[in-house]
Amino acid sequence: MMNSQLVGVYQREENLFSNSMLEDDPNDNSATNEEEKIKPRWGPGHKGAQELAGLYSRGKRSQEVVCVWICLALIVVDLYFMVAHFNYERLPTILLAAFAGIITADFLSGLVHWAADSWGSIELPVVGKNFIRPFREHHIDPTSITRHDFIETNGDNFMLCIPVLLYISYCFYFRPLEEVQRNYAFFSYMFLLAVFVALTNQIHKWSHTYFGLPWWVTILQDLHIVLPKRHHRTHHVAPHETYFCITTGWLNYPLELIKFWPALEYLIEYITGVKPRADDFKWAQKRV
């Protein structure tokens, strides 16, 4: 029994390193054989990755800049309101809200990640080149995210948080004080959820950064408080069909255990006839 378990672990490790990019090579060498040197399977030399990177437009950059600044301003405003209405009797509630916010953010990160990885194409109007494209690029060049600056890394996540943060600001400013006090726990949950969603892609970037990380980020990864490198690498084993949650990754194993994503994919394919990750596979084949 013990031998079979060890063989299973060894096979999983072999699959991990043979079917995912070697991101931790200090020389950025992702080729494992001579063919991959000529026709890169992953990395910045992959033709599909280069084509996708070239689709990052000036208009998209402008949208990200605007969203980052609006989101940061709203976080500051909402934090002021949260502190102004805080009292120590609410501390247990806030801690519970923080935990619930982390769990919800982790699940939502997985849901969005799974949807963008598995369905649609970059040919779709508006959303294709602007929002699906980064997911296609990331699978064939996982280290591309480490070359993105703060704006490109976080612009889309910050954009998603703006409606929630605006709602919180509106309630604190316009609603009666009694209503604000009564709903403080809910506002705490929503505010912390927005913060964790905003941080998700930065955490994701850290999980692909093997050199030069701040010491405190490494500690958070080692303690699995944020997404660890080794844990996330499981997702990058082709065909990228598991471990979609990327805030903390805490929900990946439970969702895998109950076959959550395969069940959703089976249902959608049964209804629509569309196979998951067909577009993702198409871009992966553009090696030369």
Characterise this structure.
The protein has 14 helices and no strands. The chain has 288 residues and is mainly alpha-helical. It is globular, with a radius of gyration of 21 Å. Mean pLDDT is 87; it is low at 1-11.
Shape: globular
Helix share of residues? 55-70%
Distance between the termini: 45 Å
- Uncertain ranges: 1-11
Strand content: under 5%
Secondary-structure element pattern, one letter each: HHHHHHHHHHHHHH
The main pleated sheet reads as: none
Content-based structural category? mainly alpha
Number of strands: 0
Q: Tally the helices: what do you get?
A: 14
Arithmetic mean of pLDDT = 87
- Radius of gyration in whole Å, from Cα? 21 Å
Brief account:
By secondary structure, this protein is mainly alpha-helical.
Question: Characteristics of this structure?
Answer:
288 residues; mainly alpha; 14 helices; 67% helix; disordered N terminus
Blueprint (SSEs and pairs):
Layout: H1 2-18, H2 34-38, H3 47-53, H4 58-84, H5 91-118, H6 127-140, H7 150-174, H8 177-182, H9 184-207, H10 215-222, H11 229-233, H12 252-257, H13 260-272, H14 278-284
Helix pairs in contact: 3-6, 4-7, 4-9, 5-9, 6-14, 7-9
